[in-house]
Write a structure and sequence with these properties.
- The protein is an alpha/beta fold.
- 39% of the residues lie in helices and 15% in strands.
- The protein has eleven helices and nine strands.
- Strand 1 (31-36), helix 2 and strand 2 form a beta-alpha-beta unit.
- Helix 2 packs across helix 11, helix 3 crosses helix 4 and helix 5 packs across helix 6.
- The structure holds phosphoric acid mono(formamide)ester.
- Phosphoric acid mono(formamide)ester (CP) is lined by residues 40-43, 114, 123, 248-250.
Length: 297
C-alpha cells in the first residue's frame, strides 16, 4: 500500500513536471538537506530539483565540503543539522546503515539516498514507477536483473519490492558477483545469460560493474564480461516484442550495453531519470505535505 501510495502521488507530480510552470507552494518554508558523502549525479540533483519544485529550501552538502573530512562523526553531523531545524535529510553514504544512524540521532525525516551495498529505495520507487507506467502493473512480470548483484544496493531494494508486488525476479551474474543467498531477496539465480532466458524477460534490468566497491579480481576482463553478460544488437533482437531495458545509471557504455542499445528505443534509462524527480517530490510531499507538523506520513 505504501508503494502504491507513493507511485500514485508521483503520477500527479509527473504531470506537473511536464507543464511549463512546474513550481508548487506546498513545502514553502521547509528545509531539505542533501548530505551526499559519496558521488552522485542523478539522485542528488533530482532531490534538489524535487525540493525546489515544491518550494522547499534545498541545501547541498558534499563529502569534500563537509566537516566529515576533518574527522567529524556522523552522529555529530546529525546533531549539527538537527540544531539548524532542517525538516528532511537525504543521505548517501558508503556504509550500510548510515541512514539508520542519522534517524536515531535526528528528529528530521531521513531519506536513504543509497547506503553502501545495502539499499537504494528511491531508485527502486522510480524503477517501479517506470515499470508500472509501461506495463500497467507488476503481477506475472518476469524481470532479469543482470550484472554485479553482490555489490548492488539497487538490486537489494528492487528485488524484494518487485517480488512483493507479484513479479518474478531472476539474478543473472557470474558466480563471483552473485550474492550467497539470492532467495533472501526473493530472487532466483542463473550464472549464465542464455538466449532463451533473455527472451523470457519482460524487463531486462542491467547493473553497472561497480569497480569502486570490488576487491580482488572477480572478472578476467571487462571485455569478457561484456561478451557473456552485455546486451548488444544480437541480444537486443532476442527480446520479447514489448520488453524494456532499464539501468540505474551511470552506464559503462560497451560493458553492460553497447551504445546502440543505450541510445535505442527499448532502453528507458532517461525516462527513469525523469520519473525520479516526480517520485522524490511524492516522497517529500508524503513526509511533510499533509499537516503543518509533518505528521501526515
Ligand atoms: N542511480 C543512481 O543512484 O545514480 P547516481 O549515483 O548518479 O545518483
Amino acid at each position: 500500500e505504501d508503494i502504491a501510495m507513493i507511485l500514485d502521488l508521483a503520477r500527479s507530480f509527473k504531470d506537473i513536471n511536464d507543464r511549463p510552470i512546474k513550481k508548487l507552494p506546498t513545502l514553502r518554508g521547509r528545509t531539505v538537506v542533501n548530505l551526499f558523502l559519496e558521488p552522485s549525479t542523478r539522485t542528488r540533483t533530482s532531490f534538489e530539483i524535487a525540493a525546489k519544485r515544491l518550494s522547499a529550501d534545498a541545501v547541498n552538502m558534499s563529502g569534500s565540503a563537509s566537516s566529515t573530512v576533518k574527522g567529524e562523526s556522523l552522529v555529530d553531523t546529525a546533531q549539527t543539522l538537527s540544531a539548524m531545524n532542517c525538516d528532511i535529510v537525504v543521505i548517501r553514504h558508503k556504509l550500510a546503515g548510515a541512514p539508520y544512524v542519522l534517524a536515531q540521532n535526528m528528529t528530521a525525516h531521513i531519506i536513504n539516498g543509497g547506503d553502501g551495498k545495502h539499499q537504494h529505495p528511491t531508485q527502486t520507487l522510480l524503477d517501479l514507477f517506470t515499470i508500472r507506467e509501461h506495463f500497467g502493473g507488476f503481477s506475472g512480470l518476469k524481470v532479469g536483473i543482470i550484472g554485479d548483484i553482490s555489490h548492488s544496493r539497487v538490486a537489494g531494494s528492487l528485488a524484494p519490492a518487485l517480488t512483493s508486488l507479484g513479479a518474478e525476479v531472476t539474478f543473472v551474474a557470474p558466480a563471483t558477483l552473485m550474492p550467497a543467498r539470492p532467495d533472501v531477496l526473493g530472487a532466483q539465480k542463473s550464472y549464465v545469460l542464455t538466449d532463451d532466458l533473455l527472451a523470457s524477460f519482460d524487463v531486462v534490468y542491467m547493473l553497472r560493474i561497480q569497480l569502486e566497491r570490488i576487491e580482488g579480481a572477480p572478472l578476467p576482463s571487462l571485455r569478457e564480461y561484456a561478451m557473456l553478460y552485455g546486451i548488444d544488437a544480437r541480444r537486443l533482437a532476442l527480446l520479447k516484442k514489448d520488453a524494456i531495458i532499464m539501468h540505474p545509471g551511470p552506464v559503462n557504455r560497451g560493458v553492460e550495453m553497447t551504445s546502440e542499445v543505450v541510445d535505442g528505443s527499448r532502453a528507458l534509462i532517461l525516462y527513469q531519470v525523469n520519473a525520479g524527480v516526480a517520485v522524490r517530490m511524492a516522497l517529500m510531499y508524503a513526509l511533510l505535505g499533509g499537516d503543518s507538523d509533518g505528521t501526515a506520513a
